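Design request, tokens follow.
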């Protein structure tokens, strides 16, 4: 039976991918060290999957799972900007060495397709919007660099060892089960915890900056189409194809807001050009920002244990951001 190996399968995007394949009765193997993923995300599937707690940056018995025919969905990674500035070595170990170890395991397997969760942060601050896949690569901080290095390894291993791949450069993914870790990072996790605690939303800069928010179910659909497609050795942007201001987000969420200092190294806009994936994979996003936020508001309980960030706490947490990324 063909195996579906999902690294980071207890995490935000990974757990949704697990849920999809459980419904299709696939043989699923989840590899996760639970550093940011949560067993709660996959506990209702525990009798239908094989879960292995492991650190992919270290070789171990988990590599035995790659014997035979398999699809590999590599989503395991450390995320967020500030922690990557604080500890770039840790990010290199997880995102680069971890990817290398997965690829080495794949050399001895019959990999039908290797799907990679890449990051649009590789573009840095693009010169053109919407941003195409041929935009200049210019990562601004270690997280972005390590994700791009992971992609480069995959492309090279594909050329040398004939491992078919599709790399998906994801733009501002949001949705149910997004991270609730103690690290200051993803905007929606911060805002939803603030909403629950009746605290003002901490808007960075003017609030007129815009982002290409992509709902998680659309991202899952892109992974599924990638695995089923006859195409291989391609890199695709995955976004909504629209860009929405932070002001609009807070208006849809409802509540008060407070403004904090704009951060260096952040683009004023993220906006994916998705013409390539629409044409080649016949993929297109389905969930509007209004619909997506409505889904989040109906599932607020998930973020009750998330840390509540205040301007003072954010100022302390982002000191290194200003120290190292200021021009």
């Amino acid at each position: 039976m063909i195996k579906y190996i999902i690294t980071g399968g207890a995490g935000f995007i990974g757990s949704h991918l697990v849920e999809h394949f459980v419904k299709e009765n696939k043989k699923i193997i989840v590899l996760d060290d639970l550093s940011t993923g949560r067993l709660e995300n996959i506990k209702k599937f525990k009798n239908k999957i094989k879960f292995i707690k492991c650190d992919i940056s270290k070789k171990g018995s988990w590599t035995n799972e790659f014997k035979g025919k398999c699809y590999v969905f590599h989503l395991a990674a450390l995320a967020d900007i500030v922690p990557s500035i604080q500890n770039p070595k840790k990010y290199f170990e997880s995102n680069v060495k971890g990817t290398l170890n997965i690829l080495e395991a794949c050399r001895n397997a019959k990999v039908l397709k290797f799907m990679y969760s890449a990051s649009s942060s590789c573009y840095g601050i693009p010169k053109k919007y919407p941003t195409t896949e041929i935009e200049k690569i210019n990562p601004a901080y270690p997280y972005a660099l390590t994700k791009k290095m992971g992609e480069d390894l995959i492309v090279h291993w594909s050329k040398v060892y004939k491992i078919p791949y599709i790399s998906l450069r994801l733009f501002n993914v949001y949705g149910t089960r997004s991270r609730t870790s103690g690290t200051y990072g993803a905007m929606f996790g911060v805002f939803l915890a603030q909403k629950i605690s009746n605290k003002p939303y901490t808007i960075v800069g003017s609030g007129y900056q815009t982002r290409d928010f992509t709902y998680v179910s659309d991202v899952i659909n892109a992974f599924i189409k990638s695995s089923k497609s006859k195409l291989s050795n391609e890199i695709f942007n995955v976004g909504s194809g629209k860009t929405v201001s932070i002001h609009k987000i807070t208006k849809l969420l409802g509540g008060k807001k407070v403004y904090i200092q704009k951060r260096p190294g952040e683009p004023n806009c993220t906006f994916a050009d998705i013409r390539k994936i629409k044409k080649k994979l016949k993929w297109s996003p389905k969930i509007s920002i209004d619909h997506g936020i409505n889904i989040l508001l109906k599932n607020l309980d998930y973020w009750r244990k998330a840390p509540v960030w205040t301007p003072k706490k954010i100022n302390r947490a982002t000191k290194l951001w200003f120290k190292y990324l200021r021009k």
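Comment from the thread starter after seeing the answer: thanks! The longest helix spans residues 88-107.
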